[in-house]
Amino acid sequence: MFRETVTSKDRTTSTGTATEQRALAMLRRMVKRPGCRFEVTRTGGFRIERDVWDGDVTPKLRTITLEPSKPLGNLTKTVREALADIDAREAYLITDAQGTFARRNDCIAAGLLGGAGPALAARLITSGLVTLGKPYKATSNGYMPETRTPVRLSLAARLALFALDADPDHRQEAAAEFIRSL
After folding, report:
1. Residues 92/109, Cβ–Cβ less than 8 Å
2. SS (H, E, C) 23-68
3. What's the CA gap between 149 and 124, in Å, rounded?
4. Do 47 and 27 contact (CB within 8 A), yes or no?
5. Is 97 helix (H, G, I), strand (E, B) or coil?
6. d(C-alpha 175, C-alpha 180), whole Å
7. Which of 43, 124, 148, 171 is the most buried (most CB within 10 A)?
8. Is the pTM of this model over 0.85?
9. What letter does residue 70 receive in the DSSP assignment?
């Protein structure tokens, strides 16, 4: 979820909430619209500005700002590495593992060696950096039952990682390409 703030051409402000799907649709529309200026923020949000012509000699500015409902917190090197693992591979949260695999309970597995341990996994989930899918039953190594829940990066996490890694001189062009790839 995102907090949405819209400043209209007459400088009135309205606030509300936007789902991740609405925010993504807004970003995709904005990239296609000529004359829109935008910025992806390190906090996992974005700001859109555009000129609105209403018959006057000069245009009026309209802005839309979306920020994550929950602050993402500090994206340390460890957190960024875990997020990169989760983004690069099929990842899932393991619960109810049994036997020798019980030590994997509450961990996020991504590939053979990637992912996050229980403490980091809990932090990623509570801070809204990852979203969870629907759990399903599986087996570890083909014989020990466990429950797996698919994990993916949230839009806010993707935006924050992009803003941290983007070259400041070419951020606008790179952000447009990044948004097209989402």
Report:
1. yes
2. HHHHHHHHHHCCCCEEEECCCCCEEEEEEECCCCCCCEEEEEEEEE
3. 14
4. no
5. coil
6. 9
7. 124
8. no
9. S
pLDDT of residue 68: 94
Give CA–CA dist 173/38, Å, rounded. Answer: 10
* Beta partners for residue 149, in sequence order: 93
On the CB side of 33, CA atoms within 13 Å amount to 15
Tell me which residue of 112, 169, 153 sits closest to 24, measured CA to CA: 153
pLDDT at 169: 65
Q: For residue 68, what are its two tokens? A: 């994550």
**Consecutive sets of 10 residues in the chain, 182 residues long: mean pLDDT of each?**
89 92 90 84 89 79 90 89 91 87 87 86 93 90 86 93 77 77 78
Phi, psi at residue 166, to the nearest 5°? Answer: -70, 145
